[in-house]
Amino acid sequence: MTTLDPSLLLRAYSVGVFPMADSRGAEDVYWVEPKKRAILPLDGFHLSRSLRKFVRSDRFRVTRDKDFAATLAACAESRPERPDTWINPSIEAAYGDLHRRGYAHSIECWRGSDLVGGLYGVRLGRAFFGESMFSRESNASKVALAHLVARMMAGGFVLLDCQFMTDHLASLGAIEISRDDYTSLLDSALGSSGADSGSAGAGALFAAGADLGALEDSEGADSDGALPGHVISQALGQTS
Fold it and tell me: Which tens digits make up the pLDDT trace of 19-31?
């Protein structure tokens, strides 16, 4: 089974490359650098009237980093529309390590004590690299993404990388750009720290980062980072 070194994984993200596996049971991983990259411009997030109403309803309690491991495991589960996954045990272990080091984060949607949706990804500099999302109830992944975008807008982020375009992401405002355009955006998001190397470079990338907790700090979120839907709706007002 391939073992992914966390420092190598961070370095890969800093140059626009990320790992995947052919299936859940695959032993090896491979590195991907798409010719066309999906990104979601933060000021272009599409908060439809129905989604805004759903966010404000507080049907779900939405937290940050409350249960990263469970969110990652849920993203790796097979589903009717996707019987297999690219998240193998090596990838699952590596991102768990990145979370413990403060680089990987999750947004979770809860119905009572049940985890019903969420997403996870990696933060470097002022970029967030979205890895995967899941829904066990209608609209849960959309609500998680709305909360992520609101936090990113408040926290000084400039790039939300979605990797590959899907109809779901396109409906929320994602666009496709060329590899060269993506590289320019990535360089800007990482700043000078992206040129560092080795473990010191990884530390510089983390230290130079934007803050996913900025909106929570200003709005008095609880210890799990949960914020009421009306705060998220207001933060996203200009993107409607």
Answer: 999 888 788 899 9
Residue 32 has pLDDT above 80, yes or no: yes
Helix H or strand E encompassing 133: strand 127-135
> Per-residue pLDDT for 198 more than 50?
no
Contact between 240 and 146 under an 8 Å Cβ cutoff? The reply is no
DSSP alpha helix (H) spans, the chain: 6-14, 49-56, 68-76, 89-100, 140-154, 167-171, 179-190, 198-207, 214-219, 229-235
In angstroms, rounded to a whole number, what is the distance separating the alpha carbons of residues 140 and 114? 12
At residue 198, what are phi and psi to the nearest 5 degrees?
70, -165
Task: Answer whether residue 3 shows pLDDT above 50.
Answer: yes
Name the nearest CA neighbour of 205 among 124, 128, 137. 124
pLDDT of residue 208: 58
What do you get for the CA distance between the two ends of the chain, in Å?
Answer: 45
Q: How far is CA 88 from the centre of its chain?
A: 18
Q: Which of 129, 200, 197, 120 is nearest to 160 (CA)?
A: 129
Q: Which of 150, 153, 148, 151 is nearest to 162 (CA)?
A: 148
Looking at residue 40, its pLDDT comes to 98
